[in-house]
């Protein structure tokens, strides 16, 4: 079987590169070099010509925009680093597993850190000043090691009135580590009474 290798001309490559990075700003220069079958320095040159900043700056810009749209949480209530947030649709965050987050003997992440990252991402997707978790179905798939970067991606799958259904997937090294299904309720600030929380 012969696989055709697509090589783009400079102008066409730059046009496609610009479109790719507007949709997926987290691609690294190395990933783009593989995708376009050119050197990393060629990708850097293309980015420079197009006025597209390096990954760190793109990530910072996207994160600032994401934090500015938060409604149901304060900035410091998000567990992990918010990368993308389109309220009512999808969200993404990252978290590095540090020494304080692991079990002393097993050297793997404590489950409540992974749950907290996923839960805060699910809540951030709710279009209301407050969101309450109604129920969660969780499956831990594999342990997460010290130093691994956990990428959480959340998606609203259904909405009916003040009720949201959200799926969240956590991955480390592109392997699934946790999967969950949330049912959340959108609330106004004065709406929550003690009786609702019992």
TrEMBL record:
Claim: DNA-binding is one of the keywords in the record: yes
Keyword terms, alphabetized: DNA-binding, Fatty acid biosynthesis, Fatty acid metabolism, Lipid biosynthesis, Lipid metabolism, Repressor, Transcription, Transcription regulation
GO molecular function: DNA binding; DNA-binding transcription factor activity
GO biological process, one term: negative regulation of fatty acid biosynthetic process
InterPro entries in UniProt: HotDog_dom_sf, Transcription_factor_FapR, WH-like_DNA-bd_sf
NCBIfam families hit by this protein: PRK04424.1
Protein name: Transcription factor FapR
Gene source species: Desulfosporosinus acididurans
Taxonomic lineage of the native organism: Bacteria, Bacillati, Bacillota, Clostridia, Eubacteriales
Gene name tied to this protein: fapR
